[in-house]
Amino acid sequence: MAAIAVERGQMLGHWRRWAPVAVLLGLCLVVGLINPSFFSFGNAVRMLNTAAIPLVVCMGATFVILMGSIDLSVEGTIALCAVAASMLVTNDLTGVTIGLWSVPAAILLGGALGLLNGLVHVKLRIPSFMATLGIGFAGIGIATAILGGVMVRIADTDFRNWLSLGRLFGIPAAVWIAGIAVLAAWVIQERTRIGRWIYAIGTDEQTARNSGIPVERTRILIFGVAGLFYGLAGALSAAQIGRGHALIAQDRLFTAITAVVVGGTALSGGVGSVLNSVIGVFIVIVLANGMVLMGIEPYVQKGVQGILIIAAVALALDRSRLDVVK
Amino acid sequence: MRAMRQRLDTWLPLIVLGVLVLAVGLYDRTFFSLGNVLEVTADTMTLFLMASGVTLVIMMGGIDLSVQAVASMTSCILAVYLPELGFFAIPFAVLGGIVAGFVGGYVSTRLRIPSFIATLAVSGAVLSAGYWFSETRSINIPGELSQKYLSWAVGNFLGVPNEIWVGAFFLVLLSLVLGLTPFGRVVRGIGAQERAVIASGIDVDRVKIAAYTLSGTMAGIAGVVMAARLGSGSPTLANEFLLPAIASIVVGGTAITGGVGSVWRTFVGALIVQVVRIGMTFMGVSVFAQQIVFGVILVAAVAVTMDRNKVLVIK
Q1: Cα(B186)–Cα(B173) distance, integer angstroms
Q2: Do A309 and B111 touch (CB under 8 A)?
């Protein structure tokens, strides 16, 4: 009896692991049947291009969620980094032009904001959602204050070509960069000590601490690493639309959380992977693309994403691990 | 020593408010005039109304991140249906808030999803609903309709702006509910020690759903008052209200770990937030930069009020 129960448990685990992939394939099939132009090369490139920035954002967000924490500062960090990047390249507001060096600058700025998130969360012992909520709002505030409500126009064609518009083998630069970001995140997750520690902390922080993992330092660092990805996403956003303004990151947080949880990473921590989030991003993008092809108003998307979050979290939640839900 | 500490904790928000008022008053003497005091208080009321319901949720140790979307949506419902339904547009709009609050509570408790993610998800759906009701536009409320149906929110009575009467009414009502009813005691109990409340046979989920529903209701009422004051409804009307609302609650001394708190504390907290805002405007800090200060205040207040004995692992 026990053996059967274990086997069923494994079957269930197996099924849960592959469920996001099945959902993605099913979704592609349904949208493709309704509108065959879905399968065209042009549409595929369009979707990849839309997926690029969410992919980069989700790489960072996944690490934080794997620890059982959450980062609500996504939009603030991206906005500030996008504004910083667009003010460092040739633009109509400042005289500074450091060209492509603005990309590492934006990434480092994101990392610094992430470290600040981590420090406030760990050192002041404040729940991450609260710390990042405050810092995220502050980030948008700073971005708006720097610009005083106006926007910066980017005149640097190199910057835009290398980060977004230029194409290699017919695929936009942003997609290649997102691919590199995914690879980097995967390497961090699989091939570094800190990547393994994320899982230990997310599964059972007390045990992780007892077995000698520097939990505090890892937490702070991971928030910093997440910030690096948001910083890159900021530079990509600025390059994509050719402008920098404080509301550039609107809805990025929502899409990121939806993609991460729909991909099968549990909010309670310890379960999931950056590859799950890649699947999750494509589920969200295909759904949005399908809705556009079916002629549904774009503002409905956020509502659909909200329902997706609830459904995915409800299905993936391991209820045996929590008794009191706050 | 302990008793003193506790007494200080109780009165600290009021002391802070007093000091801030004095500081701003020294900068600008007209601040103390009766007219100005009434105006400042009236301006604070929408923030207080929005935060008052969330206070109950935070006292249980949860959070409601959907209130700004809910208030925006109800402002749209009100503005759209006022010409058609007249007075009945008001309960209809508030009903929108009730439903949103109920759904958030239901999702969080019955599906056992942490409240911050459940209410964040619901706020996405609510935002879409707001856009749907308003057809993505901002909708003006004609002056004569406002005069006819919304004067209870924006007029004067006995020389006091009606916003203050509305705010005071809900301050007293919610305080009575929290202080005198079994519901209020259970809300406190859930925040203090949820397992004990469950063990004593109380249907915790029902109480929680009721509290979230109340939070949505108050956000809905805040949306109606906001629309009445501004003379329009829009799907982004209450944006930038979430952070000050949570800041008001926490600055007032309600701990996000639950168990401690009250609605009058939120009232004081909202006044603190408003006076800080006025002070910053005097000093020439731009409206945009003020978000930064509120972010810092929020984090600092959470750090001070949080009861770390209650949570072993801070995620």
Answers
A1: 17
A2: no
